[in-house]
Amino acid sequence: MTSEYDIAVIGGGNAALCAAMTAAERGAKVVVLETAPKTYRGGNSRHTRNFRCMHSTPLGPLVEAYGEDEYFEDLLKVTGGKTDERLARIAIRTSEECLPWMEAHGVRFQPSLSGTLSLARTNAFFMGGGKSLVNAYYRTAGKLGVDVLYEANVTHLQLEGDRISRVDYTHEGQHRSFAPRAVIVASGGFQANTDWLTRAWGPPAQNFLIRGTPYNRGVVLADLLDQGVRSVGDPTQCHAVAIDGRAPKFDGGIVTRLDCVPFSIVVNKNAERFHDEGEDVWPKRYAIWGRLIANQLDQIGYVVIDAKSLDLFMPSVFPPVKADTLEELADKMGLPPEKLLETVTAFNAACGDTSTFHPTELDGVTTSGLTPPKSNWARPITEAPFYGYSLRTGVTFTYLGLKVDEKARCSTENGPIRNLWAAGETMAGSILGQGYLAGFGMTIGTVFGRIAGQEAANHAN
């Protein structure tokens, strides 16, 4: 087997493109194998909004400072300590140099949004969102001589001893093979593979919605795991959020996320509350709600708010259900009216002084004597009209992936694989054992994509 390419990058999102550009800048001839058609290129990166970035002074659109230790503490809170600290700190520490690198490769930033996405100190927002970032990277990669094959489905990486000897894929109706000097896997998790999700989660997974690309089916991940490449992470752990129950099965994207939970009560099908809606600021807690909803009957929940809270969060892509009374709202959402009225009445009675209510920071406006409590933003639901949303579990990406070292290299039990690296969601389980921190997936992909590209180019050269 021979090949005109030094490096094959499998995947077409942020991590893959960062790897491809970095390798090309070091003189390597690179091909990107993207499973999706061109109009759907970019994987989950198409749906992103921002990049979480450490900085010691104001940087680009970021204000003040956000240090390494605070960043790491934020990560520990959401993961419950389930993280590889060495890799996590590499991602955090390197993120500061990534922002100017991103700008140099075509990405443009804008000031942060307000309300529940007020992250001006911690997260840099992309001008035009993730789609603009992806398009900018493809333009830059093309200028650097990177070739891209769309609808190129990689079916097998042949592992022989301590190296990948062959890449098999289908393209334009033909089965093809080639032998690059190095391979970078950046093809995401297995969340679009419902059968695999169901094996991990059981029957409830049939009710999950997939927020991102339908092309992340875990084909390459499964192929490598079957050949003994070391894995990391729990197949039941994932980045899962509560999204609008009316969202499509696949590719609804970030706009289907609902940011109203902190200003609401959330109930199950029996109109009973089941968790503290005001636990922390939304960017640090939104990712727990997908799992919470997954544990409810029929994997569904319902948001209830009133008129005074409607403008406190990002507008929803679908309008909320609206009613003049709580009983009417319950009827429209298929909830037991008497029980919903009882739940809201008990919640309202437990609310106290609301004079210090502040929608964008922890305000200590809490309930008293209520289980579960609401720790912040607890205001009575009394002002008609009333509004509601249904909530479903929306899976972004799964955390079972390829175990890597600090150089993004993969390995077997016998030692490192000399020419195989991984970046992005396919290795993020090394750092995200559970939970999620807003914008951190893009950080992992950017940092380890660049590392993988550099290391693969060094090997190829």
TrEMBL record:
Domain FAD-dependent oxidoreductase 2 FAD-binding per the UniProt entry, residue ranges: 6-433
GO MF, one example: oxidoreductase activity
Segment forming the signal sequence: none
Record-linked InterPro entries: CobZ, FAD-dep_OxRdtase_2_FAD-bd, FAD-oxidoreductase_2, FAD/NAD-bd_sf, Succ_DH/fumarate_Rdtase_cat_sf
Cofactor(s) essential for the protein: FAD
Keywords: FAD, Flavoprotein, Oxidoreductase
Alphabetical list of PANTHER family matching this protein: FAD-DEPENDENT OXIDOREDUCTASE 2 FAD BINDING DOMAIN-CONTAINING PROTEIN (PTHR43400:SF7), FUMARATE REDUCTASE (PTHR43400)
Protein name (Swiss-Prot/TrEMBL): Fumarate reductase flavoprotein subunit
Lineage: Bacteria, Pseudomonadati, Pseudomonadota, Alphaproteobacteria, Hyphomicrobiales
Annotated gene: ifcA_1
